[in-house]
Amino acid sequence: MTNEDLDRWVREELRSIEQALDRLVPADAPVGLGQAMRYAVLDGGKRLRPLLVRAACDASLGHAEAATRAAVAVELIHAYSLVHDDMPCMDDDALRRGKPTVHVQYGEAQAMLAGDAMQALAFEVLTPEDGSVSPELQARLVGLLARAAGHAGMAGGQAIDLASVGKPLSETVLRDMHRRKTGALLQASVLMGAACGTISAPAWQALSEYGAAIGLAFQVMDDILDVTQVSEVLGKTAGKDMDANKPTYVSVLGLDSALAYARALHEQALKALERSGLPAKHLGWLADLVVDREH
Amino acid sequence: MTNEDLDRWVREELRSIEQALDRLVPADAPVGLGQAMRYAVLDGGKRLRPLLVRAACDASLGHAEAATRAAVAVELIHAYSLVHDDMPCMDDDALRRGKPTVHVQYGEAQAMLAGDAMQALAFEVLTPEDGSVSPELQARLVGLLARAAGHAGMAGGQAIDLASVGKPLSETVLRDMHRRKTGALLQASVLMGAACGTISAPAWQALSEYGAAIGLAFQVMDDILDVTQVSEVLGKTAGKDMDANKPTYVSVLGLDSALAYARALHEQALKALERSGLPAKHLGWLADLVVDREH
């Protein structure tokens, strides 16, 4: 592997993901809803989840059109959760991906509706009526995504987050919160990609462990970047979690231990990939990106 | 048909629907999220959509367990839309089904999350991992529900609603709004029930027309009841749409013409049922209920 190979792969994948988002997120939804949805999801974001879907699909020699739809669906779920999270009744944030947040741009009511419609669209995207994805795979992808997005996953993690502001949390509770809040969707991205191909049960299990490890590593790095970077680099308000008195890996473990923990999780992820026995080069690169990123 | 048969059928169906909701909506979601979700969907509501699913499944001699899951899923979508609709940034309503609305009871952030988690749960319920519903049917039901809930259906209708407050609307735009906002999900309820069985393309088309007619009839009656009933009977704030200067069928057509329109739609629905050639007695009863109801 060279940096050049990685850069080329990411660039090509991102182009293809952006095209798919542009194609599948409708501009013609009634009176401003389509614009708000597109504003929320196009031209922004690291696209880590779509990249994970595509990389896992590559590793399992999977169905590319299905993986593209899965990539769009998982990004729609992620993007809708940011729209709702940023609203005044939640985190009340005005800046996201370097732009005004959706409710600042379009009003709160339209932001809530756009988020709701984006969640529905994710499941619509996974169930094309043109025969391009088999019904078995459609059902599998919907099941994985719905479970990762709902009460046992992302929404459940957000509920723990909501209840934990200003409270001292143990590392165990903090980990449970993040496993659900961000980890579940990142892990689902890997598994949805893998579901597009055919892999053995042990390889599936190994990818699941890879997904869990990088899911947690991503959050630990997020907490580290929140205190070490400025808003301009992050594209969102820096120091926000500390200011809001939210428990983070840095506040619970300290900065040095948090960094060491991120490195250990990265190592775990790479070992799981090795164990999978799959040609999982792209997933390895993404594990590196998760811990080496600056925003 | 006697009233007694109808009453017995509705009573038995409602018992079975409530049991399924109780079983499938989790109490153990993290820190209050499960309670908020159950508060939003249990012990309340007319359950018209679940009844339509079950009745259409009866008419198509369909798969009962699949129809039960479809009924729960469609009610979850309906209930989540009410939770979000009632929030301060939308309709700002404090009373629903005779109880304080979810955000009044649990706070705005939890209400938004509960709504989000309910939408995800709907798609989780449609994709059981126990083999009780075939993957083909799972994919079909998800596709129907996602399209009815999203930008082209319910969420799109709400966006039109949002943009139309205080503006004079033609009957055409009003109808388009309601076809999406309430009609799409009512029609999808019928089609999801029908999808659980095996019916001919013409019968499917006839049920689709039945669903569209009662969907619109339901909204026309809603507008009529909003001005003719008091809050105690409705279980929600009466006169609300008029006060909010929202266009309704009564404000656009006048009360007498609105009533005549509801009756004409009822007639259309019954004719479509006849054309379907299906044993659709229960769907006929539900069409009667839609226009004869008092709340």
UniProtKB/TrEMBL annotation, chains A, B:
<dbReference type="InterPro" id="IPR008949">
    <property type="entry name" value="Isoprenoid_synthase_dom_sf"/>
</dbReference>
<dbReference type="InterPro" id="IPR033749">
    <property type="entry name" value="Polyprenyl_synt_CS"/>
</dbReference>
<dbReference type="Pfam" id="PF00348">
    <property type="entry name" value="polyprenyl_synt"/>
</dbReference>
<dbReference type="InterPro" id="IPR053378">
    <property type="entry name" value="Prenyl_diphosphate_synthase"/>
</dbReference>
<protein>
    <submittedName>
        <fullName>(2E,6E)-farnesyl diphosphate synthase</fullName>
    </submittedName>
</protein>
<dbReference type="InterPro" id="IPR000092">
    <property type="entry name" value="Polyprenyl_synt"/>
</dbReference>
<keyword id="KW-0808">Transferase</keyword>
<keyword id="KW-0460">Magnesium</keyword>
<keyword id="KW-0479">Metal-binding</keyword>
<keyword id="KW-0414">Isoprene biosynthesis</keyword>
<comment type="similarity">
    <text>Belongs to the FPP/GGPP synthase family.</text>
</comment>
